[in-house]
Amino acid sequence: MPISHPALQRAFEFLDGITPNRTYSVGCMLLAYGATTDPNHKPRMRELLAIMVRFQHKHGTYGYPHRAPDLSNTQYAALGLWAANKAGLKVAPQVWNDLANGTIAHQEAFHMAKVGITNRTGTAQREIAGFQYRASGSKTANNATGTMTTAGVSILKICEIGLGNKLRGKARKEFTRAMEAGLSWLDINFSVKRDQKPQGRGGKWLLYCLYGMERVGGLTRREQFGEHWWYVEGAKEVLSRQKKGRWGQPYDTCFALLFLRRATITGPMTGAGAGAGNTRHLFAAGESGDDIELRAAGQQPLILYIQNFGKFLLDEHSEYGLRILRVEYLMGDQVFGQLAADPTKAWTSLETFIHRHPALPHGVHTLKVRVIAIAANAPPGEIDKTITLESKPMDVKIRDVIEPWMKGLAQIQKGNQITGQKFKATASSLPKNAAKAADGLNHTHWLCDPKDQSPTLTLTFDDAIKTRWLILTQPLQKRDDIKRMGLIRQVEVSCNGKKPFKVDMHANPLAATEFKLPKTQRVRTVTLKVVSRGGKPGLPVGFAEVVLEGKRK
Questions:
Q1: What are phi and psi of 77, to 5 degrees?
Q2: Helices in 37-167 by DSSP H: which ranges?
Q3: What angle, 0 to 180 degrees and rounded to 10, lies between the N-to-C axes of helices 42-55 and 71-86?
Q4: pLDDT for 212-245, tens place per residue?
Q5: 432 three-state secondary structure
Q6: Nearest-5° angle of CA 248, CA 230, CA 182?
Q7: Predicted model pTM
Q8: CA dihedral sign, ordered 98, 100, 106, 112
């Protein structure tokens, strides 16, 4: 999809509003911003780079970051640093050096192993050393895995790129030896069926491992591991595991697509190829033989045009030709686009009467075109005698658009005063999940018991929160959720146990409801009671997010 696609725009609106506190998050966000190649994202990437540098452990590697370092977190830190480096941001040499030294500490002991000689019979001895999840002081062999060895080799290669000509002498020799030993380990233990564990244990992280293999292949420009063409064999295995368009968990699907896309060696698409995978939206009404063949393409703008007029109609106007006075595009009976024509000239197939409509809202719209033409028997110069032609109705589905509420929903965490605060959540039913209504995640929620007639949620904060805005979202993530969840129409709100007031929820249940309090106040307790419902009776209702925001600029 092109970067202008609403799904991506909404995602970046969300990312712009959060401060990540995990290494994985910072690394993936740097990769995401870097993939856009948009210079306007540089300041944001600079902020994230500063966080990543701050997260670096004293040994040079990375953890969650509050736990012991591991090579999985470390590789996403390295990828994030690499993305920042490619965007033109300066990463200090000391960061790269410490990262490389810390990664080498995760490598098992160097040892010799027998390997087959390519295209010849017999075997040879080669020094190998895989990488482990945790650094091992004893460097005991046989604890290495494919996921961590691909991570270790990738990190070292990224550090080599980051250091450039600053990597010299003994340090370069150590780099080369560690990488070559890791690559040799992958040659010997190659498999696309399991997580390349020498004893064949497990397989849960196979797709994670295959993406690691793709990363090593891309960074080192290797097409083979041993005698194996890793991409051909890996792609066959990945495709065989696809079911109903996806692979297992969402992260499995991500790893599968990154592997198939060969994401490491193929940069972001630009120029004529940008967005080549974007689906064209095409709509039609009328077929060959109908008086009018109406067509449309796109989303915003939606491009409407007349592809052709029917043979019977054209034959009827054969004496003077089809002379068109004007063309009107309609939604129901409402004209939303009008084009004038020259009634002194006969229509030709080069005239399509293109109309670009920039802002149809989300949903299905029934459109048609009306053509006012000169009657077939009217002599040239007479334009008072007209006929009216209408196309068949055409249903147009507008999906890829950003509506104002979408932007607001993506940004609700920007000023959320609850973030980082300790609080207690209680509810009239199913209280176990009550805290999920204020956890900063719109995809988690509290739902009441279906039998709960007065659903009530109370949040009590350890410290009072200075508040001017109350923002509420319902648990619905997509329109189909209305089949399994009810709708909240109105909520009774009480702050600090004082007289309650009523808040009407947004008419669109997917949107955030924003309510401005009469004045800024310090809120220690907020109670939400559902007093009016909609949707199918007997379905549970609840809240995805309760947000308290201070004074807006």
A1: -65, -45
A2: 42-55, 71-86, 93-104, 146-163
A3: 150
A4: 999 999 999 999 998 899 999 999 999 999 999 9
A5: helix
A6: 100
A7: 0.69
A8: negative
